[in-house]
Design a protein that fits this description.
Distance between the termini: 55 Å
Strand content: 25-35%
CATH class of one domain: Alpha Beta
CATH architecture of one domain: 3-Layer(aba) Sandwich
Shape: globular
Helix content: 10-25%
Number of strands: 37
Amino acid sequence: MLQHFAKPAWRRRAIGLAWIGLLPWACGAQAPSAASATAAATVVATGAAASVPAEIPAERFFQYPAILEAKLSPSGKKLALTTSKGGTRIGLVVLDLSQDYKAMRTGTFTDADIVEFDWVGDDRLVFSVVDLAAGGGEDRRVAPGLFSAKPDGSELRFLVKRHGKAFITSGNSFDRALEWNHRLLKVPLPQEGVLPDEVLVGRMEFGDNSLESLTPLWLNVRTGRTRDADIRGTPPRVVDWLFDSKGEPRVAMTQKNGRVAVHWRGPGDKAWRQLAEGDVLNMPFTPTTVDDAGNLFVKFSEGSEGYGVLARYDFEKNQPQTPALVSAPGFDFNGNLLLDRAGSRALGVRLDTDGEQTVWFDPGMKRTQALIDDALPGRINRLSCRRCGAEDMVVLVRSFADTDPGRLYLFEASSKRLQLISPVMDGIDPKQMARVDLHRIKARDGRDLPVWLTQPVGHKPGQPVPAVVLVHGGPWVRIGHWQWQPMEQFLASRGYLVISPEFRGSTGYGEAHYRAGWKQWGQAMQDDVADALLWAQKQGLASSQACIAGASYGGYSTLMGLIKQPELYRCGVAWVAVTDPFLLLRGSWWVEDDMNSTARQHMLPEMVGDVEKDAAMLTANSPLAQAKQIKAPLLLAFGESDLRVPIAHGERLRAALREAGRPPEWVSYDNEAHGWRMQSTQVDFAKRVEKFLGQHLKAQP
């Protein structure tokens, strides 16, 4: 059984690397040859405290990344990148590694950004688009579509239409495209003797704001023709699938009336068999991966704290095998198996505990990881390989740290050459960024409470500084990771200690921690947030000056913090915040939202509260009902196109606070939804937060 091992003490030293600049390629210039790219660039990372400039511009923290995603082609001879370099839109660029890194522009549009892509063989890519300049509200009107092209941009074909937006509508290929309610499901791995022309797409059927069925089809990316996938005998209302590397459907997940079932059809099976059934909140396991040998890998909870583990499924006993293959004590298993190209064996496993780590089973990959970790110490180095283990193996390395958004490298096994392709973001100096650490403390009732701290440069225990308690949304998610995150880094750059508690109800730290937050909005969950601040103050990290902030559930928690623990917080910043639990739970004829009946009938009553049985509890923990108790300065922000937490939540609270004689600062953003997508919105909001905190947090009492 593989168990979690602690993150090593990070070592730091200077290394010499060949530099390959990306910017000229994105502008259409030819890439430098390998020979001309041998000038060494020294990358220095130091743990010593450094003085931070008075003002690092907010724009630098919230810029579009220079590199969003990077993927090697199946042969490892080409590298595709989505990049904002050289233009105002995010485009798709391919580098031919066999021709001195010759750059080819695969796709760039004037009114859309390429955000997701994949290789179909070595000679064609598929990709979808969104309009990042239009804000998140655009998603309710426009589907991303699907397109294909050769690496040099030729033979562009429209495969799935973009719903709700005229987008290059002329030409036969668009006329033959599938309707907008199709999405990419699976790109099979290349198979010997099979022309890599087809991908699997799913035809979606909706009802009551939710997906009711997902039917897979084979789609030829060159011709646009479709054919039926072999799903004979599948039960009705399948909403999710797992496929093997060839694209054969192996797992079908069905859902109806709050009940979920897992169905399996292995290699050689003619019929589907049901493996498990349960209600939407109480499934015995979750399928994660299938391989070509007919193995199914599942995640389930074990032990008193219910930590999630990964196991192979035993079809004879009809249950997950024990002991588990992978466990990470103190954390749920959160990661994936790394299969070889044939999908027939696991090369290793990647998981995220206090930091991301990869454990390789393959000896050759284990040696490669050690070699690269030695060259790039003090960082997390994520390897993606093609022809893994071969003498001519090519490895894409994404190297990142808590103070660095990351850098992309290529490693060639034959020459053992490690080449820097590009930083992920421009203008980020790790020496000026804040360190991130995870602490495990005890809540007032003794529950283990993970708390992430983002500490300003030069900050030391015994030198308390003003703090911002940043409460994550969800709330049923894990938000903390040992990595660079823009809002936390922005606040730390302004001199604040950022405290991010993984309060009960958060996932990633065991089933018991997750379920301990059920029906605890504004109660034990809120006490956890307060306990994180009190702990930081007791440790001499945080001063008595603190504000609370957060989005979505984090915005709700911000409001409840000002209501329940007003002595702790001098101000609050809440955006896209739930203010009325009753509006969230039952909806309204007059307020449009995207909450579906499954959530409202089978999930939220158990996790938040029943509007009738728990009415008194919900009223006592409603920011709207308790608005008169909010006396600290408050900044409220909402998206005018938000369907998850409609702006009515904010408007009703603003009206109540005005009536109480304490109107909040207010801003709303046109065409933004549940979170800020446009860079202009992110920068504007960050500057408003900076000004607000400067007025109410740093001022003397």
